[in-house]
Design a protein that fits this description.
Layout: H1 5-15, E1 25-28, H2 33-44, E2 47-50, E3 53-58, E4 61-70, E5 75-77, H3 86-107, E6 120-127, H4 132-142, E7 148-155, H5 158-164, E8 170-175, H6 195-203
Parallel strand pairs: 1-2, 1-6, 6-7, 7-8
Antiparallel strand pairs: 3-4, 4-5
Length: 212
């Protein structure tokens, strides 16, 4: 178990130390991935931005991902999505796409997203159970021509990591438990990250690390 997201980020930064000097583009998945992305970007002397993807949660169990929506409009559905009504999924996709637009306007109101083309890109999240959100992010980013695409997660089960290895050039993970459950159970402090926190962290310079 990690004490908090920062401890997980520090462990990932050590594992990614070979990128030092390459000035990677660190793309954090909001909101939980952003405090970790700030730490990793600072450690590797990289640039921080967000990659906006939204999970499509199962009806009645929103934490269980049956798919994800990307900022470019692409939709990634798990096999389990076939168990749910198509009209419900269509409405949920539309709702999540609207939320992505709202977040981009709030997070980076005075600039466009940083272009990943030609960059070494590190996609960061605090953890993943099914891998749906990270998979959607990696798939969308691959189409934009990064020089190298790396997935970095605080915690994930082995089958999720095996799946992500087919989509990324490298996958690093702080903890790989056989018995998973949920991401939050592997962090002693798993407080919610707010939109204001995200805006502050994106605007922070080197060393502008969150308190915890």
């Amino acid at each position: 178990m990690f004490r908090h997201r920062l401890e997980a980020a520090e462990r990932l930064a050590e594992r990614l130390g070979h990128l030092a000097g390459q000035h990677p583009l660190v793309l954090a998945i909001p909101r939980g991935g952003v405090p970790m992305g700030r730490v990793i970007a600072d450690a590797l002397e990289g640039e921080l931005d967000v990659v906006l993807v939204r999970k499509i949660g199962a009806p009645g169990n929103p934490e269980y991902a049956i798919g994800a929506v990307s900022e470019d409009g692409s939709v990634h559905l798990e096999e389990t999505a076939g168990e749910y009504p198509g009209d419900w999924i269509a409405r949920e996709v539309e709702r999540q796409q609207a939320l992505i637009g709202e977040r981009r306007r709030r997070y980076t109101p005075v600039r466009s997203p940083i272009d990943p083309s030609g960059h070494t890109v590190v996609v960061v999240d605090d953890g993943s159970a099914t891998g749906a959100t990270m998979a959607a992010a990696l798939t969308a980013l691959r189409q934009r021509g990064p020089a190298r695409l790396i997935a970095a997660l605080g915690v994930a089960p082995p089958d999720t990591l095996a799946r992500l290895k087919a989509l990324a050039d490298e996958v690093v993970c702080g903890e790989v438990p056989e018995r998973f459950g949920s991401v939050g159970r592997f962090f002693a402090d798993f407080d919610q990250v707010s939109d204001d926190d995200v805006v502050r962290l994106l605007g922070a310079g080197p060393g502008g690390r969150p308190a915890g």
